[in-house]
Amino acid sequence: DSRAQKYEDRFHIFTENEIDYYPDTEEYNVDENLDGVVDYTFENPDFNFLQFRMNIVVRWEYIPGSSLYLVWSQGRTEDLSVGDFSFRKGMRDLFSVHPHNVFLIKFSYCFQL
To answer: DSSP characters for 25-69?
Structure first.
């Protein structure tokens, strides 16, 4: 019961008799009432979400009060259904993803009025 007063009453921890995991299909089978019939199944909910964001900004004041900005922004995102954590493999997977690059040039000039 999600509205129970006590935190412990808000969830149920399944026993070994109530839930089975099958690695070949990556599914959990649940028999809540222990009648020997599977009440419902669900897939392994584990996943990996990897993201890299980078910005490089170069500012050059070509005339006092006026500037040139060069900006490079890069983003990479990878969403995998595999839920195992491996830093080295995760970095390899993330940097094998095609990046989203944005290049910007901005000029600013100060007019004397």
So the answer is: TTEEEE-TT-SSS--EEEE----EEEEEEEEEEEEEEEETTEEEE
Residue 53 has pLDDT above 90, yes or no: yes
Q: Cα separation of 68 and 38, whole Å?
A: 66
On whether the CB atoms of residues 106 and 69 are closer than 8 A, the answer is yes
> At residue 90, what is the residue type?
G
- Rounded-to-integer distance, Cα 17 and Cα 52, Å: 42
Q: Is the pTM of this model over 0.70?
A: no
Phi/psi for 25 (5° steps) reads -105, -5
Task: Report the pLDDT value the prediction gives residue 77, as an integer from 0 to 100.
Answer: 94
61-78: pLDDT as tens digits:
998 889 999 999 999 998
Q: Are 69 and 101 in contact (CB under 8 A)?
A: no
